[in-house]
Amino acid sequence: MTDHSPHVTPVPLGHIQVSHLKGQAFEVTVRGHGAVTDQPVEAGGDDRGPTPAEMLVMSLASCVAYYAGRFLERHQLDRERLRVMADFTMADDRPARNAA
Q1: Burial of 38 (0-12, 13-18, 19+ CB in 10 A)
Q2: Cβ of 96: how many Cβ atoms within 10 Å?
Q3: Distances from the Cα of 19 to the Cαs of 4, 26, 29, 92, 96, in angstroms?
Q4: 17 pairs with which residues across the strands?
Q5: Cβ distance 36 to 28 under 8 Å?
Q6: Sign of the dihedral defined by the CA atoms of residues 19, 34, 97, 23, in that order
Q7: Which of 12, 20, 55, 99 could tie 91 with a disulfide, CB 3.0–4.6 Å?
Q8: Omega into 95 within 30° of 0, i.e. cis?
Q9: Residue 39 burial (CB < 10 Å; 0-12/13-18/19+)?
Q10: How many Cα atoms are found within 13 Å in the side-chain-facing hemisphere of 88?
Q11: In this structure, how many other beta carbons lie within 10 angstroms of the beta carbon of residue 23?
């Protein structure tokens, strides 16, 4: 029997490593790039970087900015003043998380 399914090139899996640094701080690395997450001082951290919940919102906002920029570029529109702002609220109860 002949396989008529289209040939699909496998996409390499991404790899993210998170390593404990000190206290509430962690280093996150991907493709040789690093970032530090931490908690604010009032939450027991040293405020060495954004919290993981803040990084989640940062990731979403930067993704929106990237694809909006690609749209503008594709249509020969100026990206110079492109800005994405994202507001979020933390949930009042535990576990700590972004509210829905």
Answers
A1: buried
A2: 12
A3: 45, 5, 8, 28, 20
A4: 29
A5: yes
A6: positive
A7: 99
A8: yes
A9: buried
A10: 18
A11: 12
**pLDDT score of 10 more than 80:** no
How many helices (H) and strands (E) are present in the chain, helices listed first?
A: 1, 3
Structure tokens at 87: 């507001």
Q: Which two tokens stand for residue 53?
A: 């919940």
| Sign of the dihedral defined by the CA atoms of residues 50, 56, 59, 63, in that order | negative
Span 11-37, pLDDT tens digits: 678 999 999 999 999 999 999 999 999
Omega prior to 50 cis, within 30 of 0? no
Helix (H, G, I), strand (E, B) or coil at 10: coil
